[in-house]
Structures
1.
Amino acid sequence: MEKLLSHYTATGFVVNKKRDKLLFIFHKKLQLWLPPGGHVDAGELPHEAVLREVFEETGVRAQIIDPVGILDLLDGASEVQIPTPYAVFHERIPAHGDVVAHMHYDFLYHMQAIEETVVHAEHEVTEAQWFDQQQIQKLNTTKGSKAICEKLLKVG
């Protein structure tokens, strides 16, 4: 991949309580359906960013499903374990509007909704909605998003 300015981002693949649907937003600038997420702010950890971004964009409160689980051997004072991402992608983001092409180091988290009522943030996204596997495969989204959704909805 070409060398471009890089940003750290966090994305939430949020399943509903029945684990048969995933939450997507319509990204205004990219004109794509994507799982909710965004940039990691200064001083913020990726798992904190994904919890914040999912709520800001959709109004949905969710929890991270940690594929590894928390280790009990750390003292909590000098070292703590943070939730493990489901995957980490290195993504090329094309130029759009006044934003130049750049790279994202995207921490992808498997999450489950605590509250499922969607109230999307109009200043950030055009729409937020729950989709089942069949609907996701028809969405204008990325190949990576479709592949992860297929795995998560099969596994539940």
2.
Amino acid sequence: MSLHVPLTVHGFTIDVHVFVDEPGSEEKARDLAPFLERMPRSHVESGLTRFAIFVIREQPALGAGGATYLPGRVDDAFRGKFGITGVADTDLDLVRDPERGVLGIPLDRWQRPLSSLKFTVLHEAGHAVHSSRMSLISTGASLDDFLGVRPTCGHGNAVVRRATEAYARYILGASLCRDAVVGQTTEECNARVLRHLRASPAFRSIPSGWRPGRR
């Protein structure tokens, strides 16, 4: 059985299920809510609510860092992997709805201080938004448009990896660009990346004056 910590974010319930025996997990889960609250309400409603957050021993395929398991793919990823993840097959009933996915946060990330953990969680939240018919990639955007953003996940489309990382850092109020780009200052790099991020379908209905943390 997991520790279930329901979070209220913009009036919606985000389910956190902790499958590891880690002291202080309930408090840590609740402390994530204010950071998730910084997301646009529509991103929470149409993206994040489609996913449960699973705190697990390790990812089913033993990959490093967080991971996003899309709706319809959770069972295949987790079934029979209790020894690795700590998630029993019967626990998969928690996300039996075919429209629900999982944001997997492994123990080594969960044990980090909140100041670091929040980046992992918001990065995966970015994947949840991107996968929910709200792409974070503007029309025609390429890898060059996201140069300077340091990807933190190791698989999948390179542009998506950088866009989701830029999203997490934008929501959390951190510099979007951490790697140097020839001919650009960090401020110029941030402005370029943010321009492309805000031009994406995910932000199409978000007022231009909106900033993270505003309703």
3.
Amino acid sequence: MTLGFMGDAFAQLLGGVPLTLELTFLSVGIGVVLAVLLALLRGSSRPGAWFVQGYVFIFRGSPLLMQIFLIYYGLGQFAAIRHSFAWVVLREPFDCAVIALALNTAAYGSEIVRGGLRAVPPGAVEAGRVAGMSRVLLYRRIILPLALRQALPAYGNEIVVMLKSTALASVLTLMEVTGIAYRLISETYRALEVFLCAGAIYLVLTFAITTAVQMLERRLRRHMRPA
């Protein structure tokens, strides 16, 4: 191992950080919205619960890499899709990676949100009803804020998982951190140094995300701390 080579490799790998973060936050942002909708749909009716259970079973029970391949390579085999408006999105590796990551994290996130919803104190819901809140207002002002506060620590772990899962986007020729690492290894055959640098970058990003989630959690729970 030479420090000069590792410094040069580290500098090149940093060029993939913006794409890694873009994939992470886009997929998590879309996934959060889908997760909340799925969690609400699961409690709305029996057919809705069956649909969500099937969705969660499929996306949690199959490998993420297979899901990426099915969306990017599989859907393009259908002529109806290739001649539809959806092909504008599905022919792009970046868009397919975001879709696959978002659908995957939505399955895990819906279970996290569902746990948060079940942790909402019944007394808070009853207080809202006594105050005359409608069902929509009750969810917007009481149930969802409390549920998301309860689910935040677990969702922080899911964000970290998504950060590391973006490495699979390299199979679609996206040059995020892992994609650049593979390219450097193919050019230099020095896998140890390259992967050490890539691992260090992922560790720093994970630490930053974990710290940000902890700060947000403390901010949301500041009213619970003793004066």
4.
Amino acid sequence: MPHHHKEKFEEIISLIPTLAHGLSLSIGSPDPIDKKFVKAIKKFLDRYGIKYYSEHLSFSALSSNQTYELLPLPMTAKMVNHVSDKIKRVEDILQRNLILENATYYHVLDSELSEAEFINRVMEQSGAQLLLDVNNVFVNSKNHHYDAKKFLDDLNLSKTAYIHMAGHYKDEDLDLIIDSHGMPVKDKVWKLLSYAPK
């Protein structure tokens, strides 16, 4: 971290409770856990007294090549086992509960479970908690043609650590809604957020 950013960061973090959120853990990749990376995360979290660290239920790296894109996982029992084992290894190093966000995906890989079933099984088997991104629920429901409220009904929300909101836009050429984090949160997503605690 450049020194001038570090000073400002440390000033801010001394005033405001802070959560850490990552893009590069790649919990679903076939690669083994990058222990050096996870230890560096633990050092960072410990240094700044950050209790909560979240990542994405997806993968972003293969053969140590990092894309920083959130790529979809096959929603299968085998992947539940794979991800759950890796979560436990990460938690052993971090000495913290890992929180995983339901990610957007634009292509459905061969799957035997619904998205809600897959997330529920990972949370149950691994002991991880859920970062519920309500915008991602909305985006996926539109792109993959399912009912967002039923998805929330089917999700075990007792595993939720906290809720995240973001913006999206419609790509007319691809006929997809894209999770961008660069647009205002839409009214329909705010309405979905109001439904989630119920």
